[in-house]
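README: folding subset

This subset contains proteins for which both the sequence and a predicted structure token string are available. Records are stored as plain text. Below is the entry for Ubiquinol-cytochrome C chaperone family protein (184 residues), shown exactly as it appears on disk.
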Amino acid sequence: MFKSILSLGRRPNQRITDALYGEIVASARQPTFYSEWGVSDTPLGRFEMLCVHMFLFLDRAKGSTTALGDVAQDMTDEFFKDVEHSLRELGIGDLGVPKRMKKLAKMFYGRAEAYREALAAGDTPALTAALARNIGPEREVWPEAAHIATYVERSSALLATQPDDELLAGRVVFPNAGEGAGKA
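--- output ---
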């Protein structure tokens, strides 16, 4: 009881969550996405890349140990807390935040499902189309979306090799976007 009172609301996995989320954010901000592959370097473009990386982590954690499942839930909470904070930094007022959060949550889960289905089926064209539709909807043609699809496939494969113990220690590794996934 005293431990929970003295922790002042910090979750038991907070250190792990902070470390993992920091790696996910850093991976989502790799310059290659924005400078070579045409992802818009705007709040929405950065949100899209963060969604891709959160999806990859959550997909890896799905069906794993109970402890990793708990961390995955904490990661989801951290992600949405970060999104809400970003909305407020952009000047969205208290009355507008819940409506936008609901829309962004729907966007995230819709994207995650599309990416999950394409990855599970090994359908690279479907993954490329989903990424292009979500990350670059204003483009009629976006050949660099294929590079992002290759990166997502490489990331998923790499995450599958990372033991639960490493993830539970707060360590997650994503590939370097500029290596092995093609150049624009």
